[in-house]
Amino acid sequence: MTLETFGIFIAAGAAIGFCMGCTGIGGGSLMMPVLLFMGIPSQVAVGTDLLYASITKCSAVVSHQRQRNIDWKTVAFLLLGSIPASLLTLFVLRHLQAEGDISDALITRSLGALLVLTAVTLIFRARLYRWANAHGSFLLRHATTLSVLTGLFLGICVTLSSVGAGVIGTALLMLIYAQYPSRHIVGTDIAHAVPLTFVAGSGHMFMGGIDWFLLCALLIGSVPAVYFGASMARRMPDKLLRGVLTVILLGMGLHYLWPL
Predict the structure, then answer these.
(1) How far apart are the C-alpha atoms of 152 and 8, rounded to whole Å?
(2) pLDDT at residue 224 above 80?
């Protein structure tokens, strides 16, 4: 990686970090398409983004734990589904690795589907929460089973594409635990995302799917940018930014599902 390329990836990390800080929209859904657009092989992009997510979210876990925003029992149920699902997905990817085209197609199509799902979740979020509030007692009675199933779903999605642990994970938890304060949902989702992305990222690392220079560049750019974006959030047109990002995610998702 040349010095110029290193600088470009620092700038890309900074731009995505700023968007994350302003809007809270997950880094995976923004980072993965950017990495693919910049010519990073799909498996390297996924593995690098997963370890990036694991590292960047560690400080958020510490912060949420200090504020007692994490329900560790729910985290355990999520991990009960997500870690086995992640390991199984890594096993499948390992066997497909020799057939590079099949593996790449699986990753990019999964990315496309999850980007579309992320955009749809953002569009219909208010309606989904109203439905969850109306069916709260039923969902709460089956919360344990639903949490394990949610973890299983996220384990597959995150390991395949690095997308899902942010917007989708938070939305699913808010449906199951509609009576919980949003800060507890966010803290629990982040606490679950750290071990999941670490396990999935480590699996990709052993398959040769990590670019350490790229990872360093993204961290250098994004970590300060996230804090700057968060400090600027009150001054930014949040609804407009979320709307623009939703349209972009939907467009990119459709592109990866049905490439021209």
Answers:
(1) 36
(2) yes
Buried b (16+ CB within 10 A) or exposed e, 171-197: bbbbbbbbebeeebbbbbbbbbbbbbb
pTM for this entry: 0.89
Helix 125-134 with 100-123: angle, nearest 10 deg:
70
Contact predicate 157/168, CB 8 Å: yes
- From the centroid of its chain, how far is CA 40? 18
Output the CA torsion sign for 147, 149, 150, 155: positive
pLDDT digits (tens, 9 = 90+) for 63-85: 888 888 899 999 999 999 999 99
Burial class (CB in 10 A: 0-12, 13-18, 19+), 62: exposed
Q: Please tell me what DSSP assigns to residue 221.
A: H
User: What's the CA gap between 43 and 114, in Å, rounded?
Assistant: 16
AA letter at 147: S
Q: What is the 3-state secondary structure (H, E, C) of 132-194?
A: HHHCHHHHHHCHHHHHHHHHHHHHHHHHHHCCCCCHHHHHHHHHHCCCCCHHHHHHHHHHHHH
